[in-house]
Specification:
The chain is built from 2 helices and 4 strands, in the order H-E-E-H-E-E. It is an alpha+beta fold and 111 residues long. It is globular and about 40 Å long. It starts with a helix and ends in a 5-residue tail after the last strand.
Length: 111
């Protein structure tokens, strides 16, 4: 029984650490200077909490912030399919800014 409980606890811990996109699966994320944005309709902006605890690798930090932007865009703008991100300021020796901004667009029409 101890072994089963410790296995379940480890799985819950690892799952909590993993970055995942939930509601934003359909939203494409791109830098704000992307060329394809010229044909898009701007829907608005989103802001997310970018303070990350437990993700020390800067690539993990950047990915988590992007995933949060995608989710926020999909939740606030149901027709959104693209979100751009501001400079994430994820450095080798510093944590990212406390907030990250994104601009939300509708770029693609359904086939």
């Amino acid at each position: 029984m101890k072994k089963v409980l410790s296995t379940i606890a480890a799985m819950v811990f690892l799952n909590g650490c993993a970055s995942s996109v939930t509601t934003g699966e359909k939203v494409f994320i791109t830098p704000s200077d992307s060329a394809h944005l010229s044909n898009c309709e701007m829907l608005g902006q989103v802001q997310v909490d970018a303070s990350i605890v437990g993700l020390w690798d800067r690539n993990q930090q950047a990915m988590e912030i992007k995933n949060r932007l995608r989710d926020a865009a999909a939740e606030r703008y149901p027709n959104a399919d693209t979100v751009t991100h501001s400079d994430l300021n994820v450095g080798a020796w510093s944590a990212p800014d406390a907030q990250a901004m994104g601009t939300v667009f509708k770029c693609f029409t359904p086939a």
